């Protein structure tokens, strides 16, 4: 599940977790920015609606992408693990300049796509410069370590977040979505406190983190992104507490960034919007 | 509303905000610790039930304090501002070794006690070594700047917290109560981001911050205290956002401390429970 290696002559594509609830219209700042990155009118978008149990989820995005103006927008239906070895579906993904995963349940994505040719293709494509976005469950699925489930609440508790292996486009962040709307700070802190190796990104609805090839994140959208930086963590009692009991954490750094704000995953420096 | 000056020969009394919902039984770690500080069997406790609109709130605490074992536990009923100039009530407060404010609505405390002889007496008594505790609304009322009201939610928004002048026992902290239970991180961050001079203490239910004369806080109780340290705040957009809109904050430090944990308001260093 490690990210595929970026070769010397290539540049990784953008990784774009969206917090869910983005405006599904052609004027959406998030979706238009995604399409522009993918080539604008020359973009070939593959839509993976696997997370959703609704039949029209893919159609809605296809309509919006076509309204924005793309060369093609194809729905790649992956309902069974065997679909992820289908040569026609793999070929559609192979020719895409951008791949978009809809919302729903991230465990559907992980159980159906995990370990298949589609998962390998997506990691390799991203390493070769293809941009991959996911909203809500599609965002949660992006990193190597995914929050599978866990209840809301402002403060961390033993076992509050259940992690599972994700797609593995990056191993530098853990992502939580619908962040402000569902009060998930405690869940994200819990997820990070197991092993504070990475950065927590709490992504609000209608908000996206555009993680560039240089590992600088730019925030786009109407909400905010809560960046949890455990670099300076001095103490975590997660190993000692029983399920549901509060966890002691000392030395967490926290930023709340809005549209135009940036966070550098390498230097771990945050900057506000210059506008 | 500034704290009264502690004279050279005196030591300030403890200031004890409790997050509400503390166990009102004689085995309560919080209440027994408070009584012990106040002199144990020699303690003379004055109970101020002003925040509450219920008639028996003071009685419940009197019963518990008597069960723990004190020299006296007197209810000082302050329902009108004129009550706060009553010589008999002032005399009861004057002879107390500890003063306890119940929960209810902190604006009742502020509107009835603020600016009266009782408020002045309490600040002076604390500077002379008398311990003052407050639970829930009683906790919110303690500092110079009090959160009067504001909705829950994990992330800060413009105008989310409404501040009002409090009792003024300390100007080093802003207190929020029922913290974890009501998801008030956003409210406390909002309150701090107006003017990040102080430390935010988010106190969970059945949990207390025993703020000592040396300004070292010790945590007692079954929940946690979320310490928000804005010392390193690099940027706040609170001045630029309209009401209800998200606020950009960069460089917040956050600790979650449990029973036995400590935070030094002078050095701003946190330490976990040694146990």
TrEMBL record, chains A, B:
Its EC number is 3.4.15.6. Keywords: Hydrolase, Protease, Serine protease. It catalyses: [L-4-(L-arginin-2-N-yl)aspartate](n) + H2O = [L-4-(L-arginin-2-N-yl)aspartate](n-1) + L-4-(L-arginin-2-N-yl)aspartate. It is an enzyme of class 3 (hydrolase). It comes from the Bacteria. PANTHER family: CYANOPHYCINASE. Belongs to the peptidase S51 family. Exopeptidase that catalyzes the hydrolytic cleavage of multi-L-arginyl-poly-L-aspartic acid (cyanophycin; a water-insoluble reserve polymer) into aspartate-arginine dipeptides. This is Cyanophycinase. It comes from Algimonas porphyrae. The gene is cphB.
């Amino acid at each position: 599940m490690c990210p595929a290696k970026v070769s010397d002559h290539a540049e990784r594509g953008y990784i774009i977790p969206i917090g869910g609830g983005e405006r599904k219209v052609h004027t959406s700042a998030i979706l238009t920015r995604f399409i522009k990155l993918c080539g604008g009118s020359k973009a070939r978008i593959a839509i993976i609606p696997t997370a959703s149990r609704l039949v029209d989820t893919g159609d809605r995005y296809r309509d919006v992408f076509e309204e924005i103006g793309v060369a093609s927008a194809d729905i790649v239906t992956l309902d069974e693990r065997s679909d992820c070895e289908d040569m026609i579906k793999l070929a559609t993904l192979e020719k895409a300049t951008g791949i978009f995963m809809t919302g729903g349940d991230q465990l559907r994505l992980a159980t159906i796509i995990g370990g298949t040719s589609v998962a390998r293709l997506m990691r390799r494509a991203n390493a070769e410069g293809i941009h991959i976005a996911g909203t809500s469950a599609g965002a949660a699925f992006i990193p190597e370590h995914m929050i599978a489930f866990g209840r809301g609440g402002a403060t961390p508790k033993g076992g509050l977040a259940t992690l599972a292996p994700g797609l593995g486009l990056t191993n530098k962040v853990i992502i939580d979505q619908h962040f402000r709307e569902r009060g998930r700070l405690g869940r994200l802190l819990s997820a990070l406190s197991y092993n504070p190796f990475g950065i927590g990104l709490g992504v609000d609805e209608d908000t996206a983190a555009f993680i560039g090839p240089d590992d600088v994140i730019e925030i786009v959208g109407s909400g905010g992104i809560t960046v949890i930086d455990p670099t300076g963590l001095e103490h975590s009692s997660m190993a000692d507490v029983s399920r549901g009991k509060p966890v002691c954490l000392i030395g967490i750094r926290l930023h709340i960034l809005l549209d135009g704000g940036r966070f550098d995953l390498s230097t771990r420096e945050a900057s506000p919007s210059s506008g």
